[in-house]
């Protein structure tokens, strides 16, 4: 009884603190993710006041948070949208991978962490934060900009790539043989292909089977199905997160919209718990030794993300101002970098502190680069007045920067 009481007190304190931190972040206009991570660092192992009674429950909540993050992400896309984006954006996706995953892999090898850690750190530096970027686009009123579909296209490619990357990483972390790893990858490819096929051909039937006019029944069916599929995927070493993502893709139309509305509050709660749990499992004393590598890696990959967005926008025929805005918008890292690091800390504990510092830096810098990359690039590339007597500021170009309806 005493343990239960202590757990309830700790959980209540954690959730209340998350709410207050979220309100604070909203008032100052940036993502609450760094505050959640800092809160976890303050009250985790080596922190001010370790929270031991609620640790097991928080760990389970963190797992559910990852599953819900990927489920809601999958609900945002239909199978046809994913296939279309894959056909049109794959060159940009390839450039994104080379420019942003390779620095992470090289950094891990330089630090002497080995090839498995190199694959994990490559994922940490590769994937942009869809949640942070979506919020930034809304805050800056850029949802109607010409470059915004390009940004979203790059994010979709990254999300789809995770369905292949996570099973490979899971197999490597589990230490399976080459044959076992190949089998896991084949299972993953087969699963992804089968789900996309079913969603394209029979998506309406799947959605109809899950659909319900009763919100409670819809919530229970979708959540239960997601957890079941995630558990089966984990058993097959395909990754629970990928299983949840595929469930989201398989649902479409009104069912996807209704499930998204019902599950968004749950996702926000458990995702916040996940970030806190990641901070709880990281000793603050381990961060100073990796702070300089994290800062250098953040600088390099911020520049490579800007280059990625510039290239993707150029392929889409966007003019100079929109190219720089696209690049600056993609800089933020967040939830999925932490998800990948959370999977890898068992094999290489030093990834946790470095990933925490890295995400803390870029989740704060990301909104700033989204806002100021284009004005800074315009100022640096502005021609002397003698050769260019008049120049229309890029922000006044209605075809690129004016929000829809303005």
Produce the secondary structure layout.
Layout lengths: L1 H27 L4 H11 L11 H21 L3 H32 L4 H12 L3 H10 L8 H26 L4 H33 L4 H21 L4 H11 L2 H28 L7 H28 L4 H10 L5 H10 L6 H30 L17 H4 L5
Overview in brief:
Helix content is 77%, strand content 0%. The chain has 16 helices and no strands.
Outline the structure in words:
There is one protein chain. This protein is mostly helical and 406 residues long. The protein has a single domain (36-48, 56-381), classed as Na+/H+ antiporter like fold (Up-down Bundle). Helices cover 77% and strands 0% of the residues. It has helices spanning 2-28, 33-43, 55-75, 79-110, 115-126, 130-139, 148-173, 178-210, 215-235, 240-250, 253-280, 288-315, 320-329, 335-344, 351-380, 398-401. α3 (55-75) runs antiparallel to α11 (253-280) and α14 packs antiparallel against α15 (351-380). The longest helix is centred in the middle third of the chain and has 33 residues, at 178-210. The radius of gyration is 21 Å and the shape is globular. Residues 385-406 have low confidence and may be disordered.
